User: Which sequence fits this backbone?
């Protein structure tokens, strides 16, 4: 009986030792998978399931459909349109504390010859280019408008659901004022689940 007990104890120790020898390899593989999933989740976290946001210079702007006094802006907070000439327009409206006395701001992204997911270079607000516009609207009805320039950034369409007519992606561009020498940088722009009309 004593020998059987010792044999069982030895077998359990061998099993445990064998498991602990392979455990670091499994743990390393699991850590690699965890790190990969974590970085994927971080990337996925940048792309909202639904919404539209960006940083304008250093100020966060979110398309919430509200003015700075929380009055709703008429219409949808964000949407897209796809024209018969293959032009895609994405627009988002929202309150913005980044410019003094701004009532709200909006971003307009235009893609000429849209043909599905991919990277579209941002160019000048003319001709056949894809471009970006940032507009800050004030309480008195005046506004500041900034247009992307030549090779000023990119619009990356990451998904386009033709059946449900929704689109997602990210963008960044630099833009110059239409009235003076000032400029802005639009970065970390993301949109998800924008409904095409």
Assistant:
């Amino acid at each position: 009986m004593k020998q059987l007990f010792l044999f069982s104890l030895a077998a359990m120790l061998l099993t445990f030792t064998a498991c602990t020898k392979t455990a670091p390899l499994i743990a390393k593989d699991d850590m690699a998978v965890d790190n990969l999933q974590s970085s994927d989740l971080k990337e996925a976290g940048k792309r909202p399931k639904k919404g539209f946001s960006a940083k304008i210079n250093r100020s966060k702007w979110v398309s919430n459909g509200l003015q700075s006094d929380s009055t709703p802006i008429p219409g949808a907070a964000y949407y897209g349109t796809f024209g018969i000439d293959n032009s895609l327009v994405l627009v988002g409206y929202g309150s913005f504390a980044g410019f003094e006395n701004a009532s709200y701001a909006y971003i307009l992204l235009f893609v000429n010859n849209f043909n599905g997911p991919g990277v579209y270079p941002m160019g000048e607000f003319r001709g056949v280019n894809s471009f970006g516009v940032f507009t800050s609207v004030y309480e008195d009805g005046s506004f500041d408008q900034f247009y992307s320039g030549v090779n000023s950034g990119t619009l990356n369409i990451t998904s386009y659901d033709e059946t449900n007519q929704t689109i997602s992606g990210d963008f960044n561009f630099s833009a110059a004022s239409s009235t003076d020498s000032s400029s802005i940088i639009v970065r970390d722009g993301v949109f998800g689940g924008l409904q095409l009309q």
